[in-house]
Structures are given as C-alpha cells and as structure tokens.
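Module 6 notes. Inverse folding takes a fixed backbone as the condition and produces residue identities as the prediction. Think of it as a translation problem where the source language is geometry and the target language is the twenty amino acids. Below is one complete input and output pair. Work through it position by position during the lab.
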C-alpha cells in the first residue's frame, strides 16, 4: 500500500484528492495539511511514500521550500509537485531541489494515480507540458545549476517570500518569532546577495523566479 501525504492550502482540493485516492485500495492517505512547516513535520513523523505538494502555500514556507527540506531530511519520501502552474521556473526549481514528479491540477485522475505509483517505485513522472518545458530548457542551453536565490539560507528564503508577499520587517519578526533587528538584518543580507535595491525589484525578482505567482499572493 502506498502511503500519501496531501499538502494544499485549499480545503476543497484536499477533500477532493482524498475522496479520489481513497477509492483505490492501494492508496492510504496518512495525513494532510495546508501549511509548509506542518508538511515538513508530518513528512518527518509519518514517513509517507509520496507527498502531493502544492506550490503556493501561505506564509514563509512555500511548497518548493518545503519540498527542498523534506527531500534533504527524508530521502525515502518522494515528492510530487501538484500545481496549476506550468511556469518554466517552477519546473526548473522543482527538478533541481529533488521533486520526483510534476503534475498539473487539471490532470485526469488516471494520470495522477499513475504518477503516484511511478514515483513510489523510484521513477520520475512529469506532466507532458512540464516535460516539454524541461526539454526546451535543456535544448536552449539554459542551466539547471544553482543561481543566487538557491544560495540563500533556508531562513533567508522564508524572509524573502514574506517580503515579496508585502510583509514588513515588523510583520516578519512576529510571524517567525525573531527580533525586529534580526528580521531587518535578513532583509539587508537578502538584498545584497541578490543585488536588489528596492521592494519593487524584489517583487519582480520573486515573480520571475516563481517564488510568488504572477497574480500576487
């Protein structure tokens, strides 16, 4: 039996996925959450075979950031990105950080089940559109290597996402339970590392790198 953790911030999506997958006796839903930090805790504690991970999660821990931590801390847990976005940057980051699958939410149920089984066997599974984007990326000579963003620390990535969502340093200090001075220091370090000079530049960078969606948080 394949044990599955569902991560999506929309209750209806989680309920729909659970209802769909529980029809198949070879799948067992062992947990669900709409929060990135909780996803890491559940993956660490429950050790599911597969995590279905949405990209856009609220707060400082997005789906890709949570995936990166889960892959590093729980190498036997396989993550499938399940999202509405076919953005090339999302696909590139997902593959680079170790996601084993990339599916669009409009995928048919048979495709989702096939992806879960394939990833549980240790294979990769990409939606055809995602696979096409990846092929285009490679054939165009673009690199999958780390860029400046990937060199930020995990905490800096959290702060960066919150800044891009419009949070102030004071908001961030409260949200992450850190001092205002620490939050401001993180902001300064992020701007320097990414060579950014204004919040507008930061937001544009976040959209370009698929840290936040084009339509905003």
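Target side of the pair, the amino acids:
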């Amino acid at each position: 039996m394949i044990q599955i953790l569902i991560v999506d911030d929309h209750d209806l999506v989680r309920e729909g996925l659970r209802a769909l997958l529980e029809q198949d006796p070879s799948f067992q839903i062992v947990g669900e959450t709409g929060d990135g930090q909780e996803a890491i805790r559940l993956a660490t504690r429950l050790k599911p075979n597969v995590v279905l991970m949405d990209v856009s999660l609220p707060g400082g821990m997005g789906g890709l950031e949570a995936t990166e931590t889960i892959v590093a801390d729980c190498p036997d847990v396989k993550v499938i990105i399940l999202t509405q976005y076919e953005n090339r940057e999302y696909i590139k980051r997902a593959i680079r950080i170790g996601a084993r699958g990339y599916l669009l939410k409009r995928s048919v149920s048979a495709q989702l089940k096939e992806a879960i089984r394939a990833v549980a066997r240790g294979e990769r599974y990409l939606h055809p559109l995602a696979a096409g984007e990846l092929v285009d990326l490679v054939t165009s000579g673009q690199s999958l290597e780390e860029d400046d963003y990937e060199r930020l620390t995990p905490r800096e990535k959290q702060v960066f996402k919150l800044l891009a969502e419009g949070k102030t340093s004071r908001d961030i200090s409260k949200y992450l339970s850190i001092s205002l001075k620490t939050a401001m220091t993180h902001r300064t370090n992020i701007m320097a590392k990414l060579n950014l000079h204004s919040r507008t530049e930061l937001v544009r960078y976040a959209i370009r790198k698929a840290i936040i969606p084009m339509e905003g948080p």
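Reference fact for the lab report: The mean pLDDT is 88.
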